[in-house]
TrEMBL record, chain A:
<dbReference type="Pfam" id="PF00111">
    <property type="entry name" value="Fer2"/>
</dbReference>
<feature type="domain" description="2Fe-2S ferredoxin-type">
    <location>
        <begin position="57"/>
        <end position="133"/>
    </location>
</feature>
<dbReference type="InterPro" id="IPR036010">
    <property type="entry name" value="2Fe-2S_ferredoxin-like_sf"/>
</dbReference>
<keyword id="KW-0479">Metal-binding</keyword>
<dbReference type="Pfam" id="PF01799">
    <property type="entry name" value="Fer2_2"/>
</dbReference>
<dbReference type="InterPro" id="IPR001041">
    <property type="entry name" value="2Fe-2S_ferredoxin-type"/>
</dbReference>
<dbReference type="InterPro" id="IPR002888">
    <property type="entry name" value="2Fe-2S-bd"/>
</dbReference>
<dbReference type="InterPro" id="IPR052914">
    <property type="entry name" value="Aldehyde_Oxdr_Iron-Sulfur"/>
</dbReference>
<protein>
    <submittedName>
        <fullName>(2Fe-2S)-binding protein</fullName>
    </submittedName>
</protein>
From TrEMBL, chain B:
<dbReference type="InterPro" id="IPR005107">
    <property type="entry name" value="CO_DH_flav_C"/>
</dbReference>
<dbReference type="InterPro" id="IPR016169">
    <property type="entry name" value="FAD-bd_PCMH_sub2"/>
</dbReference>
<dbReference type="InterPro" id="IPR036318">
    <property type="entry name" value="FAD-bd_PCMH-like_sf"/>
</dbReference>
<keyword id="KW-0285">Flavoprotein</keyword>
<dbReference type="InterPro" id="IPR016166">
    <property type="entry name" value="FAD-bd_PCMH"/>
</dbReference>
<keyword id="KW-0274">FAD</keyword>
<feature type="domain" description="FAD-binding PCMH-type">
    <location>
        <begin position="1"/>
        <end position="222"/>
    </location>
</feature>
<dbReference type="InterPro" id="IPR036683">
    <property type="entry name" value="CO_DH_flav_C_dom_sf"/>
</dbReference>
<dbReference type="Pfam" id="PF03450">
    <property type="entry name" value="CO_deh_flav_C"/>
</dbReference>
Length: 211, 327
């Protein structure tokens, strides 16, 4: 995958403005509808994807509340976009095949494997990474619980565990230890900190925090 | 992964036209299979056509059953109250598959099209008739512990890896397909996947550029009383060594209707009509279930490392039927 780490240079937008105008005309009915406030994201997505994307092009990603622009090829995963283009190296590359969960982030509030998500397809969506969990110096309750319960050893899987744990709490899948083990099974920890991870998530659940 | 172009489409017409009109193009929905296989160089597409904005959505009760849009996500279908209550085997098959993250991504249509986990298929250093027709099948005499005992051929014994397809095979599900000309057709799930024979590269009856629009499942007493039992090497997040999708309508101790399909042991979701024939009209006892299980694996052709699956599949099926009839 090293050839995926395209330098952020290139000729930018590949398609001509003509194609874009034509699309906007054709889609104007749809866009008019979509501009109602709850659907603005959808409208942004439609305009962002109005053309075939080839080679390096500009992509806009909303990460942890901030709109960021990168130049990348369509094959660049969301994980590589975060780590290599936006210097958000919290999300980790473990297996790069959706098997370990170290790359877990939230997209529109749902946990996904960012290694199997294309950055180009994540445009117009709300992306939340481990860097967006704490509020300034104040840790997220699950981050604090991981510290209190020793929920990690080497720490490599921890950002993914945290993002998955936050989603697990929000989904209501953390009501028993067994639930947590089942619904956190997409996050592997080769140090074997599982009992402490379960304890940390359970403590936050019992505190009434819903994520 | 090779470089490719990307195109987002909002209609089935545009999507199918793009895929049929561009050499090497493929659809992408959740991306969990296609990107995984492209990273392994098992698939090398020149263009990915995003169908996520195509309106193949909805999980709804129809006049005669359940309709699921092909672009609904595994997690949403698995936890939908309608599915949980009236089609528990579908819910259970989905929620025992993959991981929560993958289930949030993977679409129902894509799930049915996921490709085998056979190690030779996934490693381009090896020959594989499915990946490179005519190159050979090292699995026949090689690492075949996880591979199929039913429906294999000399060319291929790769297991269908999915769970949902097994549940849908049991419940007489029908797929609605749409091709590049906008023409729609209905194909029963059991006829959708094909056994490898001499052409293991062909896994379904889907034509090039054709899309899965939706899945419909008829309502039935054996659908309401149904379950999925999955046996695997670890308790969660693993492919099935053997699984059973079963549905029973039992009245006064007698089985009125039964549905049986096996997973993890076949080259496609393995509906067993032979087992259903033994169950139908018979008393709901372990002896009946044992006889049905024996019939289900009668044609098994195990290899050196997967002989255990013949017994495991039977025990899985018997346990599922016992648990379901006791429930």
């Amino acid at each position: 995958m090293t050839d995926d780490l395209t330098p952020a240079t290139g000729n930018g937008l590949a398609a001509s403005d003509d194609g874009r105008r034509t699309f906007i005309k054709q889609a104007s009915g749809l866009l008019g509808l979509a501009l109602a406030p709850p659907l603005v994201g959808q409208a942004e997505r439609l305009t962002a994807m109005a053309k075939k994307v080839e080679g390096v092009s500009e992509m806009r990603l909303k990460v942890n509340g901030a709109l960021r622009t990168i130049k990348a090829e369509p094959r660049v995963s969301l994980l590589d976009a975060l780590r290599e283009h936006l210097d958000l190296t919290g999300s980790k590359k473990g297996c790069d095949h959706g098997q370990c969960g170290a790359c877990t982030v939230l997209v529109d509030g749902r946990r996904v494997n960012s290694c199997l998500t294309l950055a180009v397809m994540a445009q117009g969506k709300e992306i939340k990474t481990v860097e967006g969990l704490a509020k300034g110096e104040e840790l997220h309750p699950l981050q604090q619980a991981f510290l209190d319960h020793d929920g990690f050893q080497c720490g490599y899987c921890t950002p993914g565990q945290l993002m998955s744990g936050v989603a697990c709490l929000k989904e209501g899948h953390a009501k028993t230890d067994g639930d947590v083990r089942e619904w956190m099974s997409g996050n592997l920890c080769r140090c074997g900190a599982y009992p402490n991870i379960v304890a940390a998530i359970r403590e936050v659940e019992k505190s009434g925090f819903k994520g | 992964m090779n470089n490719f172009s990307y195109l987002s489409t909002t209609t089935a017409k545009d999507a199918t036209a793009a895929v049929t009109g561009t050499k090497g193009a493929a659809f992408i929905a959740g991306g969990t299979t296609v990107l995984d296989l492209m990273k392994l160089n098992v698939e090398n597409h020149s263009e990915l056509v995003d169908i996520n904005l195509v309106p193949f959505k909805g999980i709804e009760q129809t006049a005669d059953g359940l309709r699921i849009g092909a672009l609904e996500r595994m997690s949403d279908v698995g936890e939908h109250p309608l599915v949980v209550q009236n089609y528990p085997v579908i819910s259970q098959s989905l929620l025992q598959a993959a991981s929560p993250q993958l289930r949030n991504m993977a679409s129902i249509g894509g799930n049915l099209l996921q490709r085998t986990r056979c190690g030779y298929f996934r490693d381009v250093a090896f020959p594989c008739n499915k990946r490179n027709p005519g190159s050979g099948c090292p699995a026949q005499e090689g690492e075949n512990r996880n591979l199929a005992i039913l429906g294999g051929s000399k060319a291929c014994i790769a297991t269908h890896p999915g769970d949902l397809g097994v549940a849908l095979a049991a419940l007489d599900a029908v797929l609605l397909l749409e091709n590049a000309k906008g023409k729609q057709r209905r194909v029963p799930l059991v006829d959708f996947h094909v056994v490898p024979g001499n052409t293991p590269q062909r896994e379904t009856v889907l034509e090039p550029g054709e899309l899965i629009v939706s899945v419909t499942v008829p309502a039935a007493a054996h659908a309401r009383k149904s379950m999925y039992l999955k046996v695997r090497d670890r308790a969660s997040y693993a492919f099935a060594l053997a699984s059973a999708a079963v549905g029973l309508d039992v009245q006064g101790g007698q089985i009125r209707t039964a549905r049986v399909a096996l997973g993890g042991v076949g080259t496609k979701p393995w509906r067993s009509v032979a087992a259903e024939k033994i169950l139908t009209g018979a008393p709901a006892t372990e002896a009946t279930f044992r006889a049905a299980a024996a019939a289900a694996v009668k044609d098994a052709q195990p290899r050196e490392q997967n002989r255990f699956k013949v017994e495991l599949a039977q025990n899985t099926l018997v346990r599922a039927l016992l648990e379901l009839s006791a429930a």
